[in-house]
Design brief:
By secondary structure, the protein is mostly helical. Helices cover 79% and strands 0% of the residues.
Length: 184
């Protein structure tokens, strides 16, 4: 073996370890994204309370349809907030670091720390379908303000979310079956 071959082999583990460290440390580049999601959650909270404050003076004058639309709007904002939390917690724990504070807390959500990427996708698409369904219900409660073509597009978009969710769930099911077959 030549002197150059030996030197190259000795440097290879160092370069490989350095590269692997940089790749592994790059996960922290996602931390600002999760901080941004905290900002998005704050915006949803402000929007939620803005809806309540703007509507409160007129609550006694509102008819049943307007009250149902208000409640649906608040539920919609709540679901969007829950979706942000699911992505925030799961994404950070799956891709950046464990949240030790949460693991020591008795109020920690049961799914936290156990939701893998596949489960996150399913929860994400289920939340999107629920939010879309509520939005569609709000539209149906207020039909006079929409054209037939607009209604058709809203229904098509909602059905697209449903079909996408079924496809994602089916792909995960097939992947799980293949994984189980390979192991057993």
């Amino acid at each position: 073996m030549s002197r150059n071959d030996a030197a190259e082999r000795d440097n290879s583990p160092f370069l490989e370890k350095a590269l692997e460290w940089v790749i592994y440390a790059s996960r922290w580049l996602m931390a600002p994204v999760y901080l941004g999601l905290i900002g998005a959650l704050a915006i949803l909270i402000v929007t939620f309370f803005r809806e309540l404050v703007n509507t409160a003076p007129f609550i006694l004058e509102m008819d049943e349809t307007d009250i149902i639309l208000l409640v649906l709007t608040l539920v919609d904002l709540s679901l969007a907030g829950n979706l942000v939390l699911i992505i925030l917690f799961s994404g950070y724990e799956n891709f950046v670091s464990k949240i030790e504070t949460a693991h020591r807390d008795k109020d920690r959500p049961e799914w936290m720390g156990t939701l893998d990427f596949s489960g996150l996708k399913i929860k994400l698409i289920a939340s999107i379908v629920a939010i879309s369904g509520i939005h569609l219900l709000k539209i149906f409660m207020n039909l006079a303000n929409y054209t037939e073509q607009q209604l058709l597009w809203y229904v098509i978009i909602h059905l697209t979310f449903i079909v996408s969710g079924v496809c994602v769930a089916t792909m995960d099911w097939i992947e799980q079956k293949a994984h189980n077959a390979a192991q057993g």
